[in-house]
Every structure is written in C-alpha cells, then in structure tokens.
What does this fold into?
Amino acid sequence: MRYLVTPPPFWQLLLAMAKISLGIPIYNSSAFLEGLFECLRRLAPLPDEIILLDDASADDSLQRLRVFAETSGLSVPLRVLSNDHNAGIAGAYNRLAREATGEWLQLLDGDDELVERDYFALVRPVLAANNDLVVTGLNSNSRLLAGGSRWFRQLVPRHPPVWWPLLGSFATRSGVIYRRRSLVEHPFVDPMYPGSDVIHLLELRRMGRCAFMPRPRVFHRVHNKSQSSRSRDYTTYRQQLARFGGRIRLTYSLDIGIRQMGHRWSR
It folds into this structure.
C-alpha cells in the first residue's frame, strides 16, 4: 500500500530554517538613511530580526531611526538601540552580536545596501550546519571595485581555501554572514585598525568552513567619509599577518598591495 506524504506548508519550511538577524550600526549616517530604509522596505523575504544601533551620532540619525521603526510597517521585529557614548565601529559590532537573537548575524554598515530584493531567500540555503561563515558578493559605485569584482569573483571557489583573500577584492565586510556564537566568542578587536576585519575573518575561517556566493551582493558605497576612500596605514595589518603560514602571508600581502595601488589610482 502506498502512502502519500503531504509536504509541509511553505511557511513551516521557513520557520524550520536558521534564524537570521540583521544588525546595522549607524554613526552620523543621516545622508544615507533614506537609501537604507528603502532597501529594507523592498526586501522580500525579510531577515527574522532587524536591529538598528545608533552609536552616539551628532546628527539626527537616531531620531530618523526611531521614526522609521514606528512607521515602517515591516513584518519582523525591529529594534532601535543607542549608545550613550561613541563606542567605535568594533564596539558597535560587538554590541550587536550580543543583542541579536538569531543563529546567524549579518552586520550591514549604514552606508551600504543589499542589492537583490530576494537577498535572504538566496542566502538561506547556504546557512547549513556544515558552514560557519557565508560571504556574499560585492557591487559598488567605485568602478574599480565593481569592475574587479565582476571580472574575478567567478574565479573564487564555492568553499575557498583559507589562503584565498576575500574582503576588499571580492567582498565587503557588510557581506559577511556570521554564526552569531562565533562573534560572541571571538569579538572584533577594539579599537579596530586598517585591515583588522580581514585578520578577524581570517581567524574565523581557520576555525570553520566558509562558503562564498558571488550572488547575492552588497552595494558598498565609496564616498569622501568612507574608510576605503582614505590613505590608510597597514603596518599593524602586515605585522598581524606574520602570525600565519607562508602561503597566507604571501597571498594576503599581494592582495593588500594591489588594493593600495588601486586606491591610489582611483583617487
């Protein structure tokens, strides 16, 4: 005798999947908030939780976040947090990791945006038990970054070896989706230094399996206040690389050298 098995409703399948928190640190980002709000409104599906953290902005960012939370109509929990004193980018990231409730956490900078409307539908199947990190692709208003990523990201393996650099050349920090537990146990170094996010991700990659997805993408906006538009001192970064094996030191040093030349040419 045959038994027909009725598949569970789609909403039950979604509930069975790992929960994703989207944490967004904000600091003097009023000029970019409308773009961020529009990005959140058009997402379908949404993440399971959104946390907006104002890091003691001097502009009207906090007020605008509160108005958005009251009027957005988004169908998922949306919290607005604020720091009494500026904690810096690492302090903001680490607080978001502690405050979030999802198994997975994406930290989206306030001047970046998610490109695809179905970003979280595309990424959910990769948030599996055998992956500890997921890194998504990059788009940018910088023609150098956008062009380089478009041409070379297809060369990146689905599960790149640890010696294969990702951040800066193929992805931005906002495109990393972490197991939240790993961020609580291994927080960002505070204060951060140029390239410390690369070292942090490298350390996490040594402890677990990383998946790379050329799509979906994060739009990384380069502007006159962004870190990537400035001349930066990578001395500490190179010193930290000395802790790793020869292949990692070689490929990551080559990567940062190429990126520094690209930044000089684009300025």
